Amino acid sequence: MKKFFSLLLALSMALSLTACGGSTDTGDTTTDDTADDTATETAAEPVELYVFAAASMQESLDQVIEAYKAVAPEVTVVATYDSSGTLKTQIQEGADCDVFISAAPKQMNQLDAEGGEENTEGLDLVDSATRLDLLENKVTLAVPEGNPKGIESFDQLAELLASGDVFLAMGNSDVPVGQYTQKIFTYYGLDEETLASSGVLTYGSNVKEVTTQVSEGTVDCGVIYATDAFSAGLTVVDEATAEMCGQVIYPAAVMKNSANPDAAKAFLDFLSTDEAMACFEAVGFSSMA
Predict the structure, then answer these.
(1) What is the structure's pLDDT at 44?
(2) Residue 261, class by beta-carbon neighbours within 10 Å (0-12 exposed, 13-18 middle, 19+ buried)?
(3) Using alpha carbons only, what angle is made at residue 191 by residues 164 and 175, rounded to the nearest 5 degrees?
(4) Residue 16, SS3?
(5) Which of 171, 225, 228, 229 is the most exposed place for a label (fewest CB within 10 A)?
(6) What is the pTM of this model?
(7) pLDDT for position 155
(8) How far apart (Å, rounded) are the C-alpha atoms in residues 175 and 224?
(9) Alpha-carbon distance 263 to 75, whole Å?
């Protein structure tokens, strides 16, 4: 009988040890679950990014932003589109901006301490290490539906402007597309002030306004980007060469005052991916990254 109780006691102790072992395993599982919960809580905190981009990018960049939701669902990209000169001024005056994409190097250089001679105000608002030349566009001569004036080229436009026989829409002097148009005038030996006083020019505060004037037929033609002509379904009769107005380069960079520099850099990196470039190239941009 004593042996029986001894065996029974030994068996009870063994079962108790096994139960402790089970408790230890359960404890490990609980620890793992807690770690998983902590990781989930810290993995994807919501981020809001403010992107300032040239008006000519609106259609294509909206598509890129939509595609980025699948890559970084925790990031909300808030885009503001306007002329690069207007956006530059807003950034300079303290507007919240994480990423800036300009339609010309000039406006980026004005904000960049490494912008050379164009950094006339000594501004240091660009994270120069992130800056890249993202896209190239083309300056084109677009006409309304039916091309009532029968305009065929920049050469012909120069003659018609000189004779006062055409009404042209162009961008303001602080807008990149307007600055490219001014270079075309210089190439042809045309004086903008003389043309303006003769009533053959009308202006837009950004390229979208110029495009609208052409689309509505309130002018005979307009100097706009190839991408805007494509998006508006306008007929392009000629394309300016680099000799006429230089390359149309769109630089992009993260701003030094970005509240979320890592997220901003990740979004900037995404703009150079094949997926993003497909959206840009679909409307006429070319990759430079």
Answers:
(1) 73
(2) middle
(3) 100
(4) helix
(5) 229
(6) 0.82
(7) 98
(8) 11
(9) 8
Burial 117-139 (b: 16+ CB within 10 A, else e): eebeeebebbbeebbeebbbbbb
Residue 43: exposure state from Cβ atoms within 10 A (0-12, 13-18, ≥19) = exposed
Q: With contact defined as beta carbons under 8 Å apart, do 205 and 175 qualify? A: yes
- Give the span between the Cα atoms of 254 and 9, in whole angstroms: 73
State residue 289's pLDDT score: 66
H-type helices in the chain, by residue range?
Answer: 2-43, 58-71, 84-92, 105-111, 154-163, 176-188, 192-197, 207-215, 226-232, 242-245, 261-270, 274-282
Tokens of 176: 């990149």
Calculate the average pLDDT of the chain.
89
Beta strands 201-204; 168-171: pairing state: parallel
Residue 47's pLDDT is what? Answer: 96
